[in-house]
Specification:
alpha/beta; Jelly Rolls; TIM Barrel; 3 domains; 7-stranded mixed sheet; 14 helices; 31 strands; GH; Beta-agarase; signal
Length: 706
């Protein structure tokens, strides 16, 4: 269905003013065009006196209403704001797309419009996003500023010439049934006051979001202390050895160290005392992850005085890494809100008491492992198995995959990489190599083994070939190609490239084509190189590590962006392959069947489920509808991992909620914690987690705790 309503009049000046943009009273200056939509001209008065007309979007791909001047263009202020009065006419939320155009230039936003009274939709006349304000997810909309309900578009893409606006289009993405919204006049105002208001005063002195309430939210120091100090009593758990191994199952080999063993058709981690151990871990158990930048964002905090004391500091997160490419407000003074709150309950010298309280909680919740990024001081407490990262840094060559979220890939063919690995391993093992509580070591973290997009699998190979002849990775790839092809002509034919001699291929900037049907040799050669690259990396780390510490497990490289080649190389070389995967079930994140075929153990070293109803705006990489759903999702995931036969552990990311305004590292601001930024546990979630952990980890009894 296509309906067009046009109001056209001549004789207007070349530049019109925004006052003419009123679909309620279109007058002589406005052209109104409805496509697969119906505009009812009947004027409706809202409770606040504003006038609106009903716009009904019909079921179609993109029903829309376009408003444009009859002649010329509208002259709006540069870096100003467009305001549209709007009301949802349905009893459920609807999605609107607003497109402001100046000729062939467009500025677009997508907003969710909840049911309820009229509100003002504010669209900044320039591109913006929560990243520009230093966080990954912006504050929920709409919000009440005390005088009016505002729906501010915090994510806007594109660019226009605001002095020559040619149209405003409101559309809806393919409704399944007719959907009605009411719209009123469009106004323009100079400046970014509405956008700034969306971020103003959103965090209180405890680091909590100010515009919402939830059960664990507190209002005073006394309430904070009462809730945070309610540490669960930890009973002894029958059926487990001192490390958390299951004594109810048949005993396995006792080596005095954690190791792996297959028994009755499934892989297990095995405790030093020889008992089956499913590693139930938590990442980032530390008191330094509550740091968020304050400098340049002081208006976001109702009281940021804590940043001026011992819980403040300075940092600079700016870099060329993918994690920072579009992030703003990412340097200067920060405030460690979590540590500030811990000190309010445990005193300024809180580190030891915090570790004791935290371990009591984790044990009560039936966790048995401290995952990556946890406070190294826990190792001295020796009450729980723990892991140690080996972070390899140096002046060795690196290769770009284009993704490079945490940086470029280390070149394992570079002799300097071996030297850097030796230094990193020495530092990591020095104080822990004789500790039986140490589960094992990780190598690096979430390296960019692949690029983005459907051809991302080949990015590392292409990146290596694009380097100059001095690159060790390039040299290794060239050696492989020369061994396979008798001359450069045979290579050029197989790859479909122009190359008259090998020097042409060796030169910097050589562009390797993506694998394609016409030239299957490209994929075969890339795969061979990727296998060699990953195998060299893992073999280098494994050999250096086993020489420095022959007792403990090499837990692989915490693979996130990965390829089949790196998974297979890790499974072949490492004692356990570690994979960070964010999916509803393990088998939806990686090929569990392949690990069964390889007959190798794998451990999930990051996963989580978040929701947006406990303060932080983000719901993590895998979001669920509400806090109540997080525990259910946790149970489904961990139960599936336990039943796989090859997965030997699951490590939750992370212990503490991220700051509302984004962590210093990269602006992540999700509700994914076991405890909030106030150090108060999320009672319902931890109860569900406890039940799952007790079922999977074995034993009986134990305090359920908070």
């Amino acid at each position: 269905m296509r309906t067009i309503l046009t109001f056209a009049f001549l004789g207007l000046p070349a530049i019109a003013h925004a006052a003419a943009v009123d679909p309620v009273h279109p007058g002589t200056a406005l052209r109104v065009k409805a496509t697969n939509a119906v505009l009812d001209p009947t004027v409706r008065k809202a409770a606040d006196g504003s006038e609106l007309v009903a716009l009904t979007f019909q079921p179609s791909v993109a029903p829309s209403l376009t408003l444009s001047p009859t002649q010329g263009a509208w002259h709006w202020p540069a870096n100003g704001t467009m305001r549209l009065r709007v009301q949802n006419g349905m009893p459920w939320p609807v999605t609107l797309i607003v497109d402001v155009a100046s000729g062939d230039k467009h500025l677009k936003t997508t907003v969710g419009l909840p049911p309820g009274p009229p509100q003002t939709l504010s669209l900044p006349l320039h591109a913006t996003s929560p990243r520009a304000f230093g966080m990954q997810v912006g504050p929920p909309m709409p919000f009440d500023d005390g005088t009016i309900k505002r729906l501010v578009a915090t994510s806007v893409d594109g660019a226009i010439d605001a002095a020559h606006v040619s149209s405003v289009t409101v559309s809806m993405p393919q409704p399944g049934a007719a959907q009605t919204v009411l719209i009123g006049a469009i106004d323009d105002v100079p400046g970014d006051a509405d956008l700034k208001a969306a971020y103003t005063g959103i965090v209180d002195r405890y680091g909590q979001y100010t515009r919402a309430t939830w059960p664990e939210k507190i209002a005073s120091d006394a309430e904070l202390k009462q809730c945070a100090d309610a540490t669960p009593h930890v009973d002894a758990v029958a059926g487990l050895d001192r490390y958390g191994g299951r004594t109810d199952l048949a005993a396995m080999k006792a080596t005095g160290w954690f190791h792996t063993q297959k028994q009755n058709g499934r892989w297990w981690l095995v405790t030093p005392e020889g008992h089956a151990f499913f590693s139930l871990g938590v990442n980032a158990v530390n008191h330094t992850d509550g740091r968020t930048y304050v400098q340049g964002r002081e208006f976001m905090f109702t009281d940021a005085s804590g940043a001026s004391g011992r819980f403040g500091g300075t940092a600079d997160s700016r870099s060329d890494n993918g994690s920072q490419r579009d992030n703003g407000m990412n340097h200067g003074r920060w405030w460690d809100i979590y540590a500030n709150n811990v000190a309010r309950t445990l005193g300024d010298d809180f580190a030891k008491a915090w570790r004791a309280r935290t371990l009591d909680r984790l044990k009560a919740w039936r966790f048995n492992t401290l995952g990556n990024w946890s406070d190294p001081a826990f190792a001295t407490d020796r009450r729980m198995a723990y892991t140690v990262p080996i972070l390899i840094r140096g002046d060795f060559n690196t290769v770009s995959t284009g993704y490079d979220y945490w940086g470029r890939m280390p070149d394992p063919f570079d002799p300097r990489f071996v030297t850097a690995t030796e230094h990193a391993v020495a530092a990591a093992t020095r104080t822990v190599r004789d500790d039986p509580w140490l589960l094992g070591y990780f190598a690096d973290n979430e390296l960019a083994w692949a690029g983005q997009g459907p051809q991302g699998r080949w990015a590392l190979a292409m990146g290596a070939l694009a380097q100059g002849p001095e690159s060790p990775a390039k040299q290794a790839f060239m050696a492989q190609l020369k061994q396979r092809y008798p001359d450069v002509a045979a290579f050029a034919k197989a790859w479909g490239v122009e190359a008259t001699d090998w020097n042409h291929v060796a030169a910097a900037g050589f562009h390797a084509p993506d694998p394609n049907e016409a030239h299957p040799a490209i994929a075969a050669d890339d795969i061979a190189f990727l296998k060699a690259y990953a195998t060299r990396y893992f073999q280098t780390v494994a050999q250096v590590l086993k020489k420095a510490d022959p007792h403990h497990l090499f837990l692989g490289g915490r693979l996130a962006v990965r390829t089949p080649e790196v998974e297979e190389a890790s499974a072949t070389v490492a004692d356990v392959t570690s994979i960070n995967t964010y999916t509803d079930l393990p088998e939806h994140g990686f090929d569990v069947a392949e690990f069964r075929r390889w007959d190798k153990p794998v451990m999930i070293t990051e996963f989580h489920f978040g929701s947006a109803d406990r303060g932080p705006f983000g719901n993590g990489v895998v979001g669920v509808a509400s806090e109540a759903e997080r525990g259910k999702a946790y149970a489904r995931f961990v139960d599936a991992a336990n039943a796989s036969g090859v997965i030997v552990g699951t490590h939750w990311f992370q212990y503490v909620d991220q700051p509302v305004t984004g962590r210093v590292l990269d602006g992540e601001n999700a509700h994914i914690g076991l405890v909030g930024i106030t150090d108060i546990p999320f009672d319902g979630f931890t109860r569900d987690v406890t039940a799952t952990n007790a079922r999977v980890g074995g034993g009986s009894g134990g305090g359920r705790g908070r």
